[in-house]
Amino acid sequence: MIHQSSDVQSSIIGKDTQIWQYVVILEGAQIGWGCNINCHCFIENDVAIGNNVTIKSGVYIWDGIIIEDDVFIGPNVTFTNDMYPRSKKHDNPLLRTVIKKGASIGAGTIIKPGIIIGEYALVGAGSLISKDIGSYELWYGSPAALKGYVCKCGSKLNDSYICHECKSKYTKNPDGKLSLLG
Predict the structure, then answer these.
(1) What is the pTM of this model?
(2) Tell me, what DSSP letter sits at residue 83?
(3) Distances (CA, A) of 9 to 6, 17, 27, 29, 65
(4) Contact assessment for residue 92 and residue 85, using Cβ atoms and an 8 Å cutoff
(5) Cβ atoms 35, 53 nearer than 8 A
(6) Which of 31, 64, 75, 117 is most buried per CB count within 10 Å?
């Protein structure tokens, strides 16, 4: 479903993807199946969006952004891709930002260029992300900082890395990163 008020120039859009009012998608963008792109969004050319992604209203996705499967992008999340922007100057390299599978980004978050947000990470609303975020990490604040860990299901883990909702268990690897057990 593509709303008649939208300007969709890309032909690479998966089955069952819904594109709502006043969305602009440029020709080079690639969008997977089962996505929901809410009203007033803009998606530039060099963008890859996976399957089953939700992008809420007011999100602009610039060249160099990769969003993997099952990601949630809250309303008015701001992506950036140029560390040193200047008007009418286009020779700065655009940095690639990657949002990994299952991550959720809260409303109004600002993401600096070149950031990687790990699988199933959770970023709280209104955060300023200036550092990479690991898998299952919970970050929030301005600037954002690590505040704990979350389960694949989205619930916060206790100090033993066990989910009180679905009872999944995690372990901390020698490199400090979390991994799901079993």
Answers:
(1) 0.95
(2) S
(3) 10, 15, 5, 9, 18
(4) yes
(5) yes
(6) 117
Write the CB contacts of 62 (distance below 8 Å, at least 6 apart in sequence): 44, 47, 79, 80, 81, 94
Confidence band for 113, pLDDT divided at 50, 70 and 90: very high
- How would DSSP label each residue in 111-176? E-TT-EE-TT-EE-TT-EE-S-B-TTEEEEETTEEEEEEB-TTSPBB-TTSBBTTT--BEEE-TTS
Q: Average the pLDDT over 123-150 and give the result.
A: 97
Q: Running DSSP on this structure, what letter comes out for residue 50?
A: -
How many C-beta atoms lie closer than 10 Å to residue 116's C-beta?
A: 16
Q: How far apart are CA 28 and CA 115, in angstroms?
A: 22
Q: What is the mean pLDDT of residues 69-81?
A: 98
Evaluate if residue 176 carries a pLDDT over 90: no
CB 121 within 8 A of CB 147: no
The C-alpha angle 22, 65, 11, rounded to 5 degrees, equals 55
Output Rg (C-alpha) for the chain, integer angstroms: 17
